[in-house]
Design goal:
- It is built from 15 helices and no strands.
- By secondary structure, the protein is mainly α.
- The longest helix has 22 residues, at about 240-260.
- The relative contact order is 0.06.
Length: about 290
Amino acid sequence: MTPILRNRHEKVQEATINLIGRIADRGAEFVPAKEWMRICFELLDLLKAHKKAIRRAAVNSFGYIAKAIGPQDVLSVLLTNLKVQERQSRVCSTVAIAIVSETCGPFTCIPAILNEYRTPELNVRNGCLKALAFVFEYVGEMSKDYIHSVVGLLEDALTDRDHVHRQTACAIVKHLAIGVAGLGYEEALTHLLNLVWPNIFETSPHVIGGVMDAIEAMRLGVGAGPILSYVLQGLFHPARRVREVYWRMYNTLILGASDAMVPFYPNLGSAADLATGQDYTRHELMMWV
């Protein structure tokens, strides 16, 4: 069946991949591991197919094969693949790494990714960051066990000179914040927020998009109150460029969590109180509290 994978007809490809995935799921032990590795290479090429159904089928089958033969061999191949020049091939590898971590547990992949990140090569580092972003997107709530182990890597990536590094790191922070929301990891998230925050004045549309996404995810992870206290500092800055960014963040806060922000608004008093010097107002919220 493996030669049929090279068939260019989309329906044939999809059906073959699904069948191979089913075999990997039900009877992987009847096929030698070397053969499964060969099929892994074939499937890597199919991760860049035009049709989404083919990509999805390839992803599922890849997961089954990784489960069948263990993550080590597959991972080493994929991490080596991050060194190639062709971008699409690298992106497919990062997706595949995330699939392996989802099926075999993130503890099999995250140490290997952290180790590979030490390679002083731009493409490899970018690939590692992208792989981590996909991993945390896929595993969701499981990322609570791994957040402290990747904080060091994120510190390095968020303070890197290369803006693509910072953009991808913001994507990781976003998925982390959404994954661990409400599980008591506010301390680590606040630390990451402090590293993301200096990037709010970026001019590149992709980077600023990533930064705003990360901050919006922090609204879930840390809560709307702390984010509001960050935003209040720049709302009335003398420079228009600064004000615009802060008002944009304030508006997204209003859209996402206007009710949660009520207890955190600063109590400014009324004009009449300021004139007399005495505060006679009884704020409804204060009476309620």
